[in-house]
Specification:
Layout (H helix, E strand, L loop, with lengths): L15 H8 L1 E4 L1 H8 L3 H5 L21 E11 L2 E4 L27 H4 L2 H15 L6 E12 L19 E10 L1 E3 L2 E5 L5 E4 L6 E6 L3 E5 L2 E3 L5 E10 L7 H4 L2
Antiparallel strand pairs: 1-9, 2-3, 2-4, 4-12, 5-9, 5-12, 6-11, 7-8, 7-10
Helix pairs in contact: 2-5
């Protein structure tokens, strides 16, 4: 596994909407992410503390111990953001062949995180961007805090492989890389063969994708030394309700 990092193709913020519309994705530098959130970058950096001591993901079917995560869900109507009661994360096997079809109850995000003005401003700022592309009445949002570590020598950010999430848009933030190699981002056109590969390295850099058009994955990580880890925040935006288990609708 090479330690060479391919620089991401950064999108100037003034070209964000056009890039999402024409290419199906955009990659933003941290300062531009802060601009979208309407807060200083240091306030976003302060949120990184909530990635410490995440609970281990108990659902990994490969038996791995490398993934830690928390999960929370929100609705945005206009400029009104509300947190919904804690709920399971569910995906169909069409989008996640490895972990789809089961209700996964992860520990909720910390109250101090979700109540943070910077956090709330970030979600609302992203919604404003997406409303310029697809105006909807309500955005149904799921937020996932991930830490992938190298406890067993290798960590897999996307053990399900290249995939879509079954939503409208996906935002993947790189928060931290510590003593690792790998973790390369790969994106492909869902309807074609074109693709890109690059490595997000700057804290709070962002890959924002149209999930209907793009397939994505991240390559495994290995430690540079005794131990390493990679922290990310993944936020998904769906316009037609949360994804729920069919059995839930029958209750």
């Amino acid at each position: 596994m090479s330690t060479t990092n391919l620089s991401p193709p950064l999108t100037p913020i003034k070209e964000l909407a056009g890039s999402l519309r024409n290419d199906g994705f955009a990659v933003l530098a941290p300062n531009d992410v802060a601009h979208i959130a309407g807060v200083p970058l240091n306030q976003l950096m302060d949120l990184n503390q909530f990635w410490e001591a995440l609970p281990r993901d108990p659902y990994l079917k490969d038996g791995g111990r490398y993934r830690f995560r928390r999960h929370s869900s929100f609705e945005v109507k206009g400029e009104s953001l509300s947190m919904v009661p804690h709920r399971a994360h569910w995906q169909s096997v069409n989008y996640n062949a490895l972990h789809g079809g089961i209700e996964r109850w992860f520990e909720p995000s910390q109250v101090q995180l979700t109540a943070s003005p910077a956090w709330q401003s970030l979600l609302l700022g992203l919604v404003r961007v997406l409303n310029g592309l697809k105006p909807v009445t309500t955005w149904f949002i799921e937020a996932h805090q991930f830490r992938i570590d190298t406890t067993d020598g290798i960590g897999r950010p996307t053990p399900e492989g290249a995939h879509r999430d079954g939503v409208d848009f996906v935002a993947v933030f790189l928060l931290n890389r510590v003593n690792i190699k790998g973790g390369e981002t790969r994106i492909f056109e869902a309807g074609g063969s074109a693709g890109l590969r690059f490595t997000l390295t700057e804290p709070w850099s962002l890959l924002l994708m149209n999930d209907e058009r793009m397939i994505h994955e991240s390559t495994p990580i290995q430690p540079l030394g005794a131990h390493g880890y990679r922290d990310t925040l993944v936020i998904t935006f769906r316009s037609n309700g949360f994804q729920d288990s069919p059995s839930r609708s029958q209750q």
